[in-house]
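Structure in, sequence out. Go:
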């Protein structure tokens, strides 16, 4: 099963749109989904592990798939 992790920040203006996109897709497609606040300890660990410098960031199956708000069609393609 595909595993999607969305890294977001409370101060990010684009992040609510990314959260909504992935939550909508999660309700329609079968994949594991996790949201992770970059200001949490676990979020900081993931940021460091992948060398990320921007949010929202989407990790799919251990690979950085999107930085910023992904296009819906590209997101669907990435999880199907």
């Amino acid at each position: 099963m595909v595993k999607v992790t969305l890294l977001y920040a409370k101060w990010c203006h684009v992040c609510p749109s990314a959260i909504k996109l992935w939550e909508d897709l999660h309700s329609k497609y079968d994949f594991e989904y996790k949201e992770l606040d970059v200001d949490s300890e676990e979020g900081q660990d993931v940021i460091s592990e992948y060398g990320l410098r921007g949010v929202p960031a989407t990790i799919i199956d251990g690979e950085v798939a999107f930085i910023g708000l992904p296009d819906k069609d590209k997101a669907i393609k990435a999880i199907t």
